[in-house]
């Protein structure tokens, strides 16, 4: 019998499984598909502190400390590189929002400044179009390879004895006297003393029998990956324009030279199919054209690249665009990391530590009071915070 079953093998679940195994727990890691098959594979994979909500910023800063030593800890390459993030303002009207980002970052002790003319930004990233008004600049942000990262966690976890069960969905949670005692899949029942829900957009079906649900709107983001180009851009870029929401985009050049860039966050039509054991959400022609246009306007050289792949990624947006990192009320031994609202990749390594602590009955080493499940029972929870992808 495993001490803990972790449901979901995105970055949150994989990191949790590894942390638990390091702490000497026996763990089974279950995913209905396989490693990084949903948000943690669809993602842009920016590892960003700047532009975070003040409550989340300390977590992102703590997570970046872990990223800096992660390759060594996992004995594998995550493709992590720390060359900065530029949040671009297209027009002078966008600059006040950038000033707020800089102020909030500085208040938390993060170096982030506003570059208020195009040339200053292009001195850092010469591949950028001159038709911009400025940017925030945070040199300690970065990016990583999402598949490599999740697979590195899985390999390291397996080496420590974690059992993995892929291609098998958890259909229900089992409890006895208000305490979790296992999970059930289509083919087996797995007893466990603790369960971690790291199920991304999924998981409310599992919570329903206990009368609770995480309020999430599922949103859609179009992603394009090109064939490799020569090195042009080492930072992560993003645009969230006050005047033109169609211009929203984010992107980066991977270490292999390919560009990976995204649209802004859109309404999802609910269509998803499965192909070769993976979930697929396809972009419309319109969203693809818009994404190519908006990122091409920011990095003109990308227009010469061949397209290698495109897909849509789904985002689990909560009403306040912050995650829940907490015990599930009323079910002892059940903890949850969900609702990352489009920015949970950077947090992943820290999420693993937090979830491992909670499911073992320990207190998180970082303050997670802002991420309590109970905040959604308050009346203010019904209003929706605007969400943008900043890379
Ligand atoms: C296009 C896009 C761009 C993004 N860009 C960034 C970025 O630049 N920086 C950043 O920090 N974040 C970004 N994000 C967000 C980030 O990728 C996610 O927040 C993060 O990957 C979430 O990881 P997770 O492990 O919590 O969830 P997921 O990766 O979604 O993993 C959940 C897993 O649970 C499994 N699962 C669900 N239900 C069950 C069940 N019943 N039984 C078994 N398995 C189940 C699923 O198959 C899935 O593999 C982006 C997201 C998208 C879509």
UniProtKB/TrEMBL annotation:
This protein's GO CC annotations: cytoplasm
Domain of life assignment: Bacteria
UniProtKB keywords: Oxidoreductase
Keyword Disulfide bond attached: no
Residue ranges of every copy of the FAD dependent oxidoreductase domain listed in the record: 3-358
Any one GO molecular-function label of the UniProt entry: oxidoreductase activity
Protein name: Sarcosine oxidase subunit beta
Organism: Gluconobacter albidus
